[in-house]
Design brief:
The complex is a heterodimer of chains A (634) and B (368). With 634 residues, chain A is an alpha+beta fold. The longest helix of chain A is centred in the N-terminal third of the chain and has 26 residues, at 16-41. The termini of chain A are far apart. Chain B is mainly beta. Chain B is globular and about 55 Å long. Chain B has a single domain (3-355), classed as YVTN repeat-like/Quinoprotein amine dehydrogenase (Methylamine Dehydrogenase, Chain H, 7 Propeller), CATH 2.130.10. Helices cover 4% and strands 46% of the residues of chain B. Classes of the chains: A alpha+beta (634), B mainly beta (368).
Chain lengths: 634, 368
């Protein structure tokens, strides 16, 4: 009998102990198995790309998060097949024979060829370079792949499976669209071509002749950035591509005026001599952030644009649009590319869908629009006549899995920004950076121009901001963001923690300059020696504070301090800047705090005249080349 | 047709039956010259490069492209690295055009210029004289060594006196010849890079003499090599400022302007060599030569009359002299290129185009 207040101590005999342990173990094993099964069945899908099938009743869904392809019967509303892929399936295309399809797997660094009927993988094409958009030539002989981190279009021979050649694209090729009636492929590019910090950005659409497999044109979208999806009418006379138009050349005080990032599309007409007309889908008091994908109805009368930061799909009447375009081209409209009042002329519907709609697809007869809501794992089905949602189909049971998942939705939502102008992802597309420089207003108008920084793999690289004033990600994303960036005045602590958890989860992209086995090339090894040297070529000792690896130290090549490296500009109020970490520095041009160095070489050849950013005056050209090769490998 | 020209051509028909028996006669006539009045940025044309669809011309004041009917010019504000364009080459895989300039290397792709300089890239030096492109690589001959740019990986490799037998680093010209890359080095002879073996080898003037060639055909005629090219049979052609050298892998065959009889190499001062349909073509400071290393054709402008003087020097027999009504505008020739039946010459006074009209001659079989 246990006395009151006395703790219960199990009366375990030495004989009884093992038996109870065994039972405990079995229970734990059973629980863990159940948990694993549950996690697998409930793993986030992350629908990234949609490919309607010829039978009209099913659609293939690329699940970026779950690394699978789903064959979804949208009439029966069930998954009828599911196959694994390499990591992060991104885009897909059909072979002209209709029997094979190709899926780019961005983190998997390969493109897989599948049998359309069985979804069996037939072979794969390895491509270290972040494969994104894919397309097959009209004759079915070549595969075009956008290599995002190489700024190249890689062409494979589908007969031999071998790479044929690489074409130079714009900055971060994204989608590849074959326009068969023109015999051309159109490649959108995520980022602007390199421009100096005081010039408007210039987004490129790279045009490839399908017969010769050569670049024949580069359509420049002046003032545009973040090129995403592209679609053409079946006759090829009209093309639409999703873009944003950042206003980074004016101070961000314009947030309160509703004009920091505007969102819209570019119209590519058959008349190539005319510059593409850019128009907005925003309204004066409401923005539709982060245009992502475009589909045009088979009759060419309407197109849909997913605005992934606004959880909305915008419907545009092509006839009404054409009237506006004609007025623009005839000079009857001024400032039409930035005109917030024009969208009412051609936008016929704003369709509220799920979280972070990205991919769009339309069925063969044009009656149904499918919307992949990437961050709530749903597919929205829309009637294209009424532009009303017919149904929403869930692909997984739960989307509120953890803080990071909630933070990811916050990150990609413009709901908390003044007028819904932009999300975090607007300036950090694909969790990275937009390659632009901004004049943030709090430190004075026209002062302290700052290069936007890459958010990938930033855990442990604090403090943040170029002057190192924010000690951690939570501070960086908290009050500062609410007060100065999005101008809504308040983000709850819980939301800040969610956002922080997500940012901490963002991984670095695979570095194509580093060999898969992490072995350095001879040039990279020589560069490493230079990076770690403590004396000049003539034997003169280099002071500790002037060695590369003194500040760029440790596994992430930074020390968390700020230094004067001789880069203070006339309008800068600070002299010392944060030591940048060097992980995947290959992808984050331009460089230095205000983006003044277009390439890694320029950091030392142009912007280190007094040797304050490391002792570089004695380097030979070969040593500089070796150092750059090494830095690109980090 | 002008009767005089008709007579001249008739003579040539007969003569060519004994010359270049296995090739189309390299006779070009109906010369036209394009200059600033036609839209070129400058009359000083430093290089010319014909593609199947266009002719690119590099001058000291910019670039021009001939589309068959008009010239379009490109200057620095269009994105060209520097106005003075020294060499032009086309990537056979991508059709992108590359330009060697005195201020860096420019790539023209789909209408966009990208510039590589010694400050923003791994290019060894901004003074770029020569280019060769093959196998996804760009070889840029510069005033401070040669750079190899691997387009796919964007990797630069620099070759100079520290890692090759480059006795001077002033590289003037590069040529892709299958497994081998050849570099013409001003004062350093010719360098051969063998890709499969990753090995360098130098070819230099054995006597090392500036003014004389001590033993004929003992090696490179002189170390000041301005241009290098190779033909389909593997013969390497080297233009120096002191004569012409050719090398078939085993034997050297050298030529100088004082070799008898008259009608051979027109000048020892060679700016450029190239090969076409089995012949070597030599641009000199005093006219143009074509040769199969046995017979010679020489083209010169007669300054007195403005007409052309064409010398035909057969393997044996006397040299014949012909006249043509038209000819290029200046005997100082910087470059040569071919497009179909047309020859294009970069000269001190504009770019000249000649047309080959004598292609079907009795007794002469035709090359492909």
């Amino acid at each position: 009998m246990r006395e009151e207040g006395q703790k219960y101590i199990p009366n375990l005999t030495p004989e009884g102990q093992p038996r109870k342990n065994l039972i405990l173990c079995l229970v734990l094993v059973a629980l863990s198995v159940r948990t694993a099964v549950a996690q697998e069945s409930e793993a986030a899908c992350g629908p990234k790309f949609l490919l309607p099938e010829a039978n009209g009743s099913s659609i293939l869904i690329l699940c970026e998060t779950r690394n699978t392809i789903l064959r979804f019967d949208h009439q029966r509303e069930e998954v009828v097949a599911q196959v694994p892929t390499a990591a992060s399936p991104f885009a897909a295309c059909l072979h002209p024979d209709g029997k094979r399809m190709y899926v780019s797997c961005r983190r998997g660094q390969r493109i897989i060829e599948l049998d359309v009927d069985s979804l069996e993988t037939l072979r794969s094409f390895v491509l270290r370079g972040d494969p994104t958009g894919v397309s097959v030539s009209a004759d079915g002989k070549r595969l075009y792949v956008a290599a995002h981190s190489l700024d190249q279009i890689v062409i494979f021979n589908l007969t031999t499976g071998l790479e044929i050649k690489r074409l130079i694209s714009g900055n971060g090729p994204e989608a590849v669209s074959l326009q068969a009636s023109k015999g051309q492929l159109f490649v959108t590019n995520l980022l602007s071509n390199p421009v100096s910090p005081d010039m408007p950005c210039r987004n490129e659409i790279t045009v490839i002749d399908d017969v010769s497999a050569r670049v024949v044109d580069r359509i420049i979208l002046e003032g545009a950035n973040i090129g995403r999806g592209i679609a053409f009418t079946e006759d090829g006379l009209l093309g639409i591509t999703a873009i944003s138009r950042p206003k980074n050349l004016v101070p961000m005080v314009q947030v309160a005026r509703g004009w920091v990032v505007t969102n819209g599309f570019a119209v590519l007409s058959a008349d190539r001599d005319a510059a593409p007309v850019q128009l907005l889908v925003d309204q004066p008091n409401r923005s539709y952030a982060d245009p992502h994908d475009v589909v045009i109805t088979p009759d060419g009368r309407k197109f849909y644009l997913s605005c992934s930061g606004a959880d909305t799909v915008t419907a545009v009447d092509v006839g009404l649009l054409q009237k506006t375009v004609d007025e623009a081209l005839n000079g009857h409209l001024t400032n039409y590319s930035d005109h917030l009042g024009l969208s009412r002329r051609y936008v016929v519907a704003r369709i509220k869908v799920g979280a972070n709609p990205q991919a769009l697809a339309i069925d063969r007869n044009g009656h149904r629009l499918f919307v992949a809501n990437r961050l709530d794992d749903t597919i929205t089905v829309v009637d294209t006549v009424s532009d009303e949602v017919i149904k929403t189909i869930a692909l997984s049971e739960s989307v509120d899995r953890d803080r990071a998942a909630r933070g990811e939705r916050l990150f990609h939502s413009a709901a908390r920004t003044f007028h819904g102008q932009f999300s975090c992802a607007s300036c950090h597309p694909d969790d990275g950076f937009d390659g632009l420089q901004y004049d943030l207003e709090p430190d004075g108008l026209g002062e302290n121009l700052l290069d936007n920084r890459n958010l990938r793999d930033v855990v442990g690289t604090g403090p943040f901001k170029w002057v190192g004033s924010n000690p951690d990600i939570t501070t960086q994303c908290g009050t500062r963001t609410a007060k100065w960036i999005v101008r809504t005045g308040w983000i709850s602590l819980s939301q800040v923690l969610d956002l922080t958890a997500y940012i901490r989860s963002i991984k670095a992209v695979v570095n194509p300059h580093r060999s898969p086995d992490d072995q350095l090339t001879l040039a990279q090894l020589r560069g490493k020696v230079l990076f770690e040297r403590n004396s000049m070529n003539d034997g003169t000792p280099i002071p500790v504070e002037n060695r590369c690896n003194s500040c760029h130290a440790g596994p992430r090549y930074f020390d968390g301090n700020q230094f004067d490296v001789g880069t203070k500009a006339p309008r800068d109020t600070k002299t010392e800047f944060d030591t940048a970490h060097l992980i995947n520095i290959f992808e984050s041009a331009p460089y230095l705090h205000d983006g003044r160095a277009a390439t890694l070489e320029e950091i030392w050849t142009v912007h280190n005249p007094s040797g304050e950013h490391g002792v570089s005056s004695d380097w030979t050209k070969r040593q500089l080349n070796d150092l750059v090769e090494y830095l690109k490998s980090l | 047709m002008n009767p005089r020209i008709t007579i001249t051509l008739s003579v040539i028909f007969i003569l060519t039956s004994n010359l270049f028996a296995n090739a189309v006669p390299p006779f070009y006539d109906h010369w036209e010259t394009f200059d600033t009045s036609d839209g070129l940025p400058s009359n000083k044309v430093l290089c010319v490069y014909a593609t199947p669809n266009a002719v690119w011309v590099g001058t000291d004041k910019g670039l021009a492209r001939w589309d068959g009917s008009r010239w379009k010019t490109y200057v620095k504000k269009d994105g060209l690295a520097h106005p003075a364009v020294m060499a032009i080459a086309q990537d056979p895989d991508t059709s992108d055009m590359w330009f060697a300039t005195l201020g860096g290397l420019s790539r023209f792709s789909g209408g966009r210029f990208d510039t590589f300089t010694q400050l923003n890239s791994g290019l060894p030096n901004d003074v770029v004289y020569g280019l060769a492109i093959a196998n996804g690589e760009v070889w840029a001959a510069t005033a401070a060594g040669t750079g190899r740019y691997e387009i796919g990986s964007k990797r630069w490799t620099l070759y100079d006196e520290t890692n090759t037998p480059m006795h001077e680093i002033w590289c003037y010209s590069a040529a892709d010849c299958g497994d081998n890359i050849y570099l013409a080095v001003w004062g350093g002879g010719m360098l051969e890079y063998n890709r499969p073996r990753d090995r360098w080898k130098d070819y230099r003037d054995p006597d090392g003499e500036m003014e004389i060639d001590l033993f004929r055909n003992d090696g490179l005629v002189h170390d000041v090599v301005a241009s290098v090219a190779c033909d389909d049979s593997g013969i390497v052609w080297m233009g120096t400022y002191f004569g012409l050298s050719t090398y078939d892998g085993r034997k050297w065959l050298n030529f100088m302007d004082h070799d008898p009889p008259v009608g051979g190499l027109v000048s020892n001062f060679i700016n450029f060599v190239t090969t076409h349909e089995g012949l070597g073509w030599i641009a000199t400071d005093n006219g143009l030569n074509a040769t199969d290393r046995k017979s010679w054709w020489t083209y010169q402008r007669d300054p007195a009359t403005g007409e052309g003087v064409v010398l035909l020097k057969p393997v044996d027999g006397p040299t014949r002299r012909l006249r043509t009504k038209t000819i290029f505008a200046h005997n100082y020739i910087f470059g040569i290129s071919f497009q179909g039946d047309e020859i294009w010459l970069a000269t001190e006074k504009g770019v000249a185009r000649g047309r080959r009209t004598v292609t079907h001659v009795a007794g002469v079989s035709h090359g492909d």
